[in-house]
Amino acid sequence: LPGVVDNATIEADICSVPPTRWTCTAPQDFQTAGADYARTSHAQVAFSDAYCDLTFKWKYVDPIFNAASNRISNSGPVVYDTFVVCGFSSRYRFLSLNTGLVVGEFYGAGAPYYLPTTGVNCTPTIAMVDVGGTPTPVMYVGSGNSSGYRVFAAYDMSNFVPGPIGMVPAQLWTVNASNYGAMGYTFPATPMPQHIGATNWTNPIVLNLGGTDMVFFNTNDQYVWAANAATGVRIWGPIVINGLTYKGMATDGTNLYISNTPLLPTYPLGDITCWDAATGAAKWALSTAAGGGLKGATTMPDYGNETFVSGLAVYGGEVYTVSSAPEVDDPSG
After folding, report:
1. How far apart are CA 206 and CA 19, in angstroms?
2. Between β-strands 83-87 and 282-285, what pairing exists: parallel, antiparallel or unpaired?
3. Mean pLDDT score of the chain, rounded to an integer?
4. How far is 242 from 288, CA to CA, in rounded Å?
5. How far apart are alpha carbons 255 and 81 in whole angstroms?
6. Pairing of β 78-80 and β 45-46
7. Predicted confidence band at 200 (pLDDT cuts at 50, 70, 90)?
8. Helices and strands, counts by H and E, the chain
């Protein structure tokens, strides 16, 4: 009718689901083997619903914390069975999942642990591995903060009984200064490092390839190794990376993807490379990719700024990472 407006346009936007309409279910726990190595610093628990799972239960405060020598710096917690395992600056601690109380820890610069007094940045990896025909939960940790042979170790978690702080799981094997040769570890010709190196930044990866459980670990300098996950004996390596790898390893189950920072002055830029996980054979490098390549500057004052220090992730056949190169250094603008 003239003068009567009875038409309207109504838009309703719902930006979130009210909490009362969520359906909470139990978290879905899984072992890391074959589950979540596609991203750096993977977790070992999949949350079915973050809203339902994130209920504060406890907080652990390190009683010997100090900013200089003992702290959680670049290590993250890993959940296994009823334990939370975390690397602190000078030790690995086992906490009760339910209470947060310390139920075990190990530390010490000498045998059998070869841990530094500061600088444990490795997030442990716990995976099911065939040990002598028995499926066994094995924890892999890095160690050492110098250029010596303080390297890499594996611990059998199957018989670990929580108790006083001194309780620790049994060491399955270790690669160190006294046995690296017998374990098959050799080094390239100089000027490459003539030692296995410290692994206190590594993010170990475990895969079963061709019926063999293999563990992959990287050193703080330029090496990546593959070892028999049950014995520690070298399978291949080292891959020599033109830079520092830190936590930069991920896999799609067939290939290893490795990101690295520069190693000045010889290698002014970081890189992303792909390697065959079964053999260690090189497949490609971003620095030599057709139509791609690196974007950072190789001259001062931004010398060496193409730095892939934050790790990487693999999803849907693509690799994702973060570079610290400023936009101004990208010649494409």
Report:
1. 38
2. unpaired
3. 78
4. 13
5. 29
6. unpaired
7. confident
8. 1, 20
Hey, what are 260's tokens?
A: 């690295």
Q: Provide Rg for the chain, Cα atoms.
A: 23
For the chain, percent of residues with pLDDT exceeding 90? 26
Q: Which alpha helices (DSSP H) does the chain contain, by range?
A: 50-53
Two structure tokens written together for 96: 């009760």
Record the tokens describing residue 77, joined without a space.
Answer: 């917690």
DSSP state of 52: H
Predicted pLDDT at 171: 92
Q: How many CB atoms lie within 10 A of CB 254?
A: 12
pLDDT greater at residue 150 or residue 91: 91
Residues whose CB is less than 8 angstroms from the CB of residue 94 and which lie 6 or more positions away in sequence, other chains included = 83, 84, 85, 102, 103, 104, 105, 160, 162, 167
Spatial CB neighbours of 67, under 8 Å, sequence gap ≥ 6: none
First to last CA, the chain: 59
* pTM greater than 0.90: no
CA neighbor of 155 nearest in space, from 83, 235, 53, 61 = 83
148 Cα distance to chain centroid: 22
Q: How far from chain centre, in Å, is Cα 60?
A: 22
Lowest mean pLDDT of 11-20, 81-90, 309-318, name the range: 11-20
